[in-house]
Specification:
Layout lengths: L2 H7 L2 E6 L1 H18 L3 E5 H4 L10 E7 L5 H12 L3 E6 L5 H5 L2 E4 L12 H21 L4 H22 L2 H8 L7 E6 L3 H16 L2 E6 L17 E4 L6 H13 L4 E6 L11 E5 L8 H18 L18
Parallel strand pairs: 1-2, 1-3, 3-4, 4-5, 6-7, 6-8, 8-9, 9-10
This protein binds 5-amino-5-deoxy-1-O-phosphono-D-mannitol.
The site of 5-amino-5-deoxy-1-O-phosphono-D-mannitol has 16 residues, from helix 2 and helix 9.
């Protein structure tokens, strides 16, 4: 069976990954379920390898890894292979162990990542996952030509969109200065931008050593709202039209409890200026594609929080670029 047939006949897709690659995989789940109507699961490789998971021979396991050397992801691949699944790799480092251990795959080709924190790998992984979802959907006929063209155009336009986002650099540097007082941050997102919020929180923890957690905004009322005070800044992403009003009502709740709110919206969104302390407007995009500009804004926030604290952004304490041991 060739790759195309395998993807066409897949009973299920299971992603295995760690850290940032796990966040990109969550976006992969949303994309593949949305475009291709194939059920998807996303597993922490470190859990998957030790928990006796059900794996069918007609499952496709996709291992996502920047370095291609992550020990847990490699072990998850071995388990998938022992159970007869087809394993597809999405790696950055050419010729890496994961690239060699998988049955087939794609390189993201973003060039070497020098800093310990994954940055361009995240956007590269999501780009490849969008292309993969698009290809499967085309072959399966789950999206029409018009939609397929639009997605391809969005991908082609991305470099220009990201250049526009980089123009926000000075503004982000400016407001990030105030964050040195905070010991805890909350990130809120929904839909495609829930994984991006998780990724933003990880970046902040990793390079600025400020504790941060991300939540799906609808979960706020189920406990997290108890954490909100005027010392807990909230970074809120509200880019999805169909649930925009709901997200705004979540933001009103945190604002009413004194939080300093940084709101990320698309430039065509009308918002009451009083709802947030800072409003960052990213280029108008379809919700799935806001993941890219939002990821860059969140990386810049983490970067400037780290710089303000005088930390080494590229070499954060306690971390290695590749986690080759357990
Ligand atoms: O090389 P990998 O993508 O397999 O690495 C997985 C994680 O260790 C990695 O993404 C880690 O979370 C990053 N330092 C996050 O910036």
């Amino acid at each position: 069976m060739d790759n195309r047939e395998r993807f066409l006949n897949a009973r299920r897709i299971i992603f295995v990954a760690c850290g940032t690659s796990w966040h990109a995989s969550l976006i992969g789940e949303y994309l593949i379920e949305d475009f291709c109507r194939i059920p998807v699961e996303v597993e922490y490789a470190s859990e998957f390898r030790y928990r006796n998971p059900v794996i069918y021979p007609d499952d496709i396991v996709i291992a996502v890894s920047q370095s291609g050397e992550t020990a847990d992801t490699l072990a998850a691949i071995e388990l998938a292979k022992q159970n007869g699944a087809f394993v597809y790799g999405i790696c950055n480092v050419i010729g890496s162990s994961i690239a060699r251990a998988t049955d087939s795959g794609t390189y993201i080709h973003v060039g070497p990542e020098i800093g310990v924190a994954s940055t361009k790998a995240f956007t590269g992984q999501v780009t490849v996952l969008t292309m993969l979802a698009l290809m499967i959907a085309r072959v399966k006929g789950t999206i029409d030509q018009e939609c397929s063209r639009k997605i391809a155009k969005h991908l082609l336009d991305l470099p220009a969109v990201l250049e526009e986002v980089l123009r926000l650099n000075d503004r982000i540097a400016d407001f990030s200065k105030i964050f040195t007082y905070a010991h805890n941050f909350i990130y809120l997102g929904r839909g495609y931008n829930y994984p991006t919020a998780l990724e933003g929180a990880l970046k902040l923890k990793e390079i600025s050593y400020i504790h941060a957690e991300a939540y799906a905004a609808g979960e706020l009322k189920h406990g997290t709202i108890a954490l909100i005070t005027d010392h807990v800044p909230v970074i809120a992403i509200a880019t999805q039209k169909h649930i925009f009003a709901k997200t705004i009502s979540n933001i009103r709740e945190v604002k009413a409890r004194g939080a300093y709110v940084v709101l990320l919206v698309t430039e065509d969104t009308a918002v009451d200026e009083g709802i947030a302390d800072v409003i960052i407007r990213i280029p108008k995009e379809d919700d799935k594609f806001t993941v890219f500009p939002i990821a860059v804004v969140l990386q810049l926030i983490a970067y400037y929080a780290s710089v303000q604290k005088g930390l080494d952004v590229d070499q954060p304490r306690n971390l290695a670029k590749s986690v080759t041991v357990e």
